[in-house]
Amino acid sequence: MVLGATGTTGGRVAARLLAAGHEVKAASRRATPAEGARAVRFDWYEPATFADALDGADSIYLVAPVGALDPAPVMLPFLRQARAAGVRRAVLLSSSAIPAGGPAMGQVHEALPGLFGEWAVLRPSWFMQNFTGDHAHARSIREEGLLLSATEDGRVGFVDADDIAAVAVHALTGDRAPNTDLVLTGPQTLSYDDIAALVTEVTGRQVTHRRLTFARLRDRLAAEVPPDFAELLAGMDRAIAEGAEDRTTDTVQRVTGRPPRGFRALAERELSGRL
């Protein structure tokens, strides 16, 4: 069972599982899954959708409710129901910025080993697709030629969502579950100035990183999302500025047997000729 099966990582996970010959239940509020998957309606806030989604599932790829600052009260009752229904392995998508026991997904991460004998927590760095898909950064690049952040000179090991999905499939289907958390990054760290320069070079369109203060970014985000969520997101930029994401890991290579993809390759694949 793949939650968020129409999302950035869930759709990729479902497609890879199907390609490998696995039966997949694609669970989402809007069931438009990868071809070959069985669509099943699922809504975190409608417990009546849980039983049908869980029926016959032996492993789950977990994606939290969108925008939930404290997802544990919603997710943990579902996970207990999943265990009772016969699910033996759970792979949770979290974030490199959130350790076990930390805020938001950190609470679910901390609880997962006590709920399932087979588990993994994926903790990817920021997605490369934030600059190419429907994320606010990607829209700003397309519409204004601007990349807005409060990250200053901070560097991030941006990771390709395809690499996250590849690791997720190994974690879901391997003979032995990882039973640990896995921090996922790309092959190098880049600043937002670096990202703007690479997009400019690949597309031929000038893209500029405009540096905002924490307060300015928070207030800008608060026009689109709840104020507490805007505070959290702006705080993540501030943490990047302070060096929290300036690291790379060998996890993708170690788990999949191939190196992670770099941002230039992704930009050439997804942005060249499109801006």
What does this structure look like?
With 275 residues, the protein is of the alpha/beta class. The chain contains eleven helices and eleven strands. A four-stranded parallel sheet has the order 4-5-6-9, with helices on both faces. It is globular.
CATH superfamily of the largest domain: NAD(P)-binding Rossmann-like Domain
* Terminal Cα span: 36 Å
Number of helices: 11
The largest pleated sheet is described as:
4 strands, parallel
Unreliable stretches (pLDDT < 50, length at least 5) are none
- Measured by DSSP, the beta-strand proportion falls in 15-25%
| Shape, per Cα inertia axes | globular
Helix content: 40-55%
Mean pLDDT score? 94
Radius of gyration: 19 Å
Helix/strand-derived category reads alpha/beta
Question: Order of SSEs, N→C?
Answer: EHEEHEHEHEHEEHEEHEHHHH
Features:
275 residues, alpha/beta, Rossmann fold, UDP-galactose 4-epimerase, domain 1, three-stranded parallel sheet, 11 helices, NAD(P)-bd_dom_sf, Ergot_Alk_Oxidoreductase, NAD(P)-bd_dom, NAD(P)H-binding protein
In short:
Residues 4-109 form the NAD(P)-binding domain. Helices cover 40% and strands 15% of the residues.
